[in-house]
Write a structure and sequence with these properties.
With 739 residues, this protein is mainly α. It contains 40 helices and two strands. The protein has a two-stranded antiparallel ribbon. Helix 13 packs parallel to helix 15. This is Neurochondrin.
């Protein structure tokens, strides 16, 4: 009997024996479990047949010997060593020829020989070492094509080949570098097409896709984005239409198929509609929790963009946040109950969405009564979070759920510090210690961040990465709290200012020369700006701390060294404003420091500060008028709303520094700032200069004139007395009238 005759026996002979006997030991491999040899000695019959297999001179002899081997072993009675010896006897050459043959003998269907080749590979792949063998890996493209090949769906041999193909690919996926090889071999697209075709084995395609996305999400989307989006569209549509228990299963699958980039609008529409029906019904926890996690994943990836505007959208968002708050309270208020951390963390993400929408002034999805109600329920949930954190001991501080709880508290404190003030103050010592612990172990903190993201959303990495340091989460809230006497005293007592100085210097290093600032996340610059705001609060409310704590001397040195380069960088004007204003205010308090006595660093800093202050306004011609008006310069105009308070504070601080630093007035004169300022005022209409601008300019000019005779003379030469008269600057006019 020829090889083809054996194969064409339809499962009676060739594949029946291969799949039923050797299959359970390897070829089918789906229910293969290694078993120990029944005796230490080798089976002589098996040895004889293996010898025949090794000595076979052609494919027919090799195939016949292989059938004899299957008769010598019983299903389940073959161990890994014996399976490996069978492979050593067969090798890859024979299955390779079966897989790649293009011409089958007469009467033999084309796919039968390929099916036998795949069956042999499935046998070999039951050995993890062989599953990672190059001869298996280079078959991935061929195997992937079998998943989408056309043929009779009722053909048993074809179905067997598809099962064996999935067995091979699944075995490869289980090896350390297997997912990468599968993705590179086009398996992702093949699996997507197999699933969308809903042919035999499509459920196996989906299961393998889930595994690949969990193991290598970014690479999967890079190689197969169009096909994965097609699967997402199909799953979303199924989810929207599902009326049975399958919708709860889809809740668990869908988070894995959300792309790291933009989610198609039609998918968002279907997902929201499906979630609205689920969450609007009375559910048990096992039904509700996957829906909350899917909603959290969407909130994390898309904010509120996936929720429609209008009455239905606002009701849905209010429902989401209310359910999340109830879940948080139930989990954290009851002592002794086991917390479902993944569900509660997902609820935190939904609460963050609620906080964002409640604080949004324009185009908010929520109506004012809804905002009031949600703030009330979120306050209760935050109270439960505080209660939980108060119970956290040192041994739990590195757990992801604690980090997630600190994150939601930080999001709340960034917007609301007046409520729960007593509870927040009691928790501040813990928060400072916690932030310090994670700051000192940066690598662990970054890893903790990733664990939180995984815990909160799905078994795979979400789109945007969660921040790795607790301090960045707490900075906005601490900025508000340092304005208040009680919380500020606690923060100072616990060492928060020193920690913040170290953190600022660490973050600043990321923006220093040698680092590519173009790839820095916006969070670094935002953190630096928020730190500056906290330090500004401390300068104003706790000046004694600035004078006595050595960390602020180090901070001042960094500000002086950094500002000259910072003011020259495009797109970083707001950070430069923060640094300049903070440095000027600190210079007033540290004016006796040797570092501020006309050193190169101090001169460079004040020159840069003058550049920031002097370039804010220009004279701009107006049509139909002979006289120009005072206008914001282009770089300042777009961000003046965020900048103006810092600018006025900086002008005031510079004014205060002039009498304290004798070298500053001559330096300002050499920069020609007073002359150019008077020239600017003389070239524009006085009516175009607002009173607060006049006051700020007069303050600087008066102090410079009082501090230095040469400044007074330069101002007189620039028509200073006349300009002072036009702008009703009585103090400047009087000062310039003096000798």
């Amino acid at each position: 009997m020829s090889c083809c005759d054996l194969a064409a026996a339809g499962q009676r002979d060739a594949q029946s024996l291969l799949c039923s006997q050797l299959g359970k030991a390897g070829i089918m491999a789906s229910d293969c479990e290694p078993a120990l040899n029944q005796a230490e000695g080798r089976n002589p019959t098996l040895e004889r047949y293996l010898g025949a297999l090794r000595e076979a001179k052609n494919d027919s002899e090799q195939f016949a010997a292989l059938l004899l081997v299957t008769k010598a072993v019983k299903a389940g009675d073959i161990d890994a060593k014996t399976r490996r010896r069978i492979f050593d006897a067969v090798g890859f050459t024979f299955p390779n020829r079966l897989l790649t043959t293009k011409e089958a003998p007469d009467g033999c269907p084309d796919h039968v020989l390929r099916a036998l080749g795949v069956a042999l590979l499935a046998c070999f792949c039951s050995d993890p070492e062989l599953a990672a063998h190059p001869q298996v890996l280079n078959k991935i493209p061929i195997l992937s094509t079998f998943l989408t090949a056309r043929g009779d769906p009722d053909d048993a041999a074809r179905r067997s080949m598809i099962d064996d193909t999935y067995q091979c690919l699944t075995a490869v996926a289980g090896t350390p570098r297997g997912p990468r090889h599968l993705i590179a071999g086009g398996t992702v697209s093949a699996l997507c097409q197999a699933y969308l075709g809903h042919g035999y084995g499509f459920d196996q395609a989906l299961a393998l896709l889930v595994g690949l996305l969990a193991a290598a999400e970014t690479q999967c989307w890079k190689e197969g984005e169009p096909d994965l989006l097609a699967v997402l569209r199909g799953l979303s549509e199924d989810f929207q239409k599902a009326e049975d228990a399958s919708k709860f299963e889809l809740c668990q699958l869908l988070p894995l198929f959300l792309p790291p980039t933009t989610v198609p609008s039609e998918c968002l529409r279907d997902l929201q509609a499906g979630l609205a029906r689920i969450l609007g019904s009375k559910l048990s926890s096992w039904q509700r929790n996957p829906a909350l996690k899917l909603a959290a994943r969407l909130a994390h990836a898309c904010g509120s963009d996936w929720i429609p505007a209008g009455n239905s959208g606002s009701k849905f968002l209010a429902l989401l946040v209310n359910l999340a708050c109830v879940e948080v309270r139930l989990a954290l208020e009851e002592t002794g109950t086991e917390v479902k951390e993944d569900v509660v963390t997902a609820c935190y993400a939904l609460m963050e969405l609620g906080i964002q929408e409640c604080t949004r002034c324009e185009q908010s999805l929520l109506k004012e009564p809804q905002k009031v109600q949600l703030v009330s329920v979120m306050k209760e949930a935050i109270g439960a979070v505080i209660h939980y954190l108060q119970q956290v001991g040192p041994e739990k501080q590195k757990e992801p759920f604690v980090f997630a709880s600190v994150r939601i508290l930080g999001a709340w404190l960034a917007e609301e510090t007046s409520s729960l003030r007593k509870e927040v103050c009691q928790l501040l010592p813990f928060l400072v210690r916690y932030a310090k612990t994670l700051y000192e172990e940066t690598e662990e903190a970054n890893d903790l961040s990733q664990q939180v993201a995984t815990l909160a959303i799905s078994p795979t990495t979400p789109g945007p990465t969660w921040p790795g340091d607790a301090l960045r989460l707490l900075l906005p809230g601490w900025c508000h709290l340092t304005v208040e006497d009680g919380p500020r005293e606690i923060l100072i007592k616990e060492g928060a200012p020193s920690l913040l100085c170290k953190y600022f210097l660490q973050q600043w290093e990321l923006t220093s020369p040698g680092h590519d600032t173009s790839v820095l996340p916006d969070s670094v610059e935002i953190s630096l700006q928020t730190c500056c705001h906290i330090f500004l609060n401390l300068v104003v409310t706790a000046p004694g701390l600035i004078k006595r704590d050595a960390c602020f001397t180090s901070l001042m040195n960094t500000l002086m060294a950094s500002l000259p380069a910072l003011v020259q960088q495009q797109g970083r004007l707001l950070l430069a404003a923060n640094v300049a204003t903070l440095g000027l205010l600190m210079a007033r308090l540290l004016s006796t420091s040797p570092a501020l006595q006309g050193t190169p660093a101090s001169r460079g800093f004040f020159a840069a500060a003058i550049l920031f202050l002097s370039q804010s306004h220009v004279a701009r011609a107006t049509p139909g008028s002979d006289q120009a008006v005072l206008a914001l310069s282009p770089d300042y105009e777009g961000i003046w709303a965020d900048l103006q308070e810092l600018w006025f504070l900086g002008m005031q601080a510079f004014t205060g520094c002039v009498p304290l630093l004798p070298w500053l007035a001559p330096a300002a004169l050499r920069s020609r700032w007073p002359q150019e300022l008077l020239q600017l005022l003389g070239s524009v209409s006085p009516n175009s200069v607002k009173p607060e601008m006049v006051a700020a300019y007069q303050g600087v000019l008066v102090e410079l004139a009082r501090a230095n005779r040469l400044c007074r003379e330069a101002m007189r030469l620039q028509a200073g007395e006349e300009t002072a008269s036009h702008y009703h600057m009585a103090a400047l006019e009087q000062c310039l009238a003096e000798p």
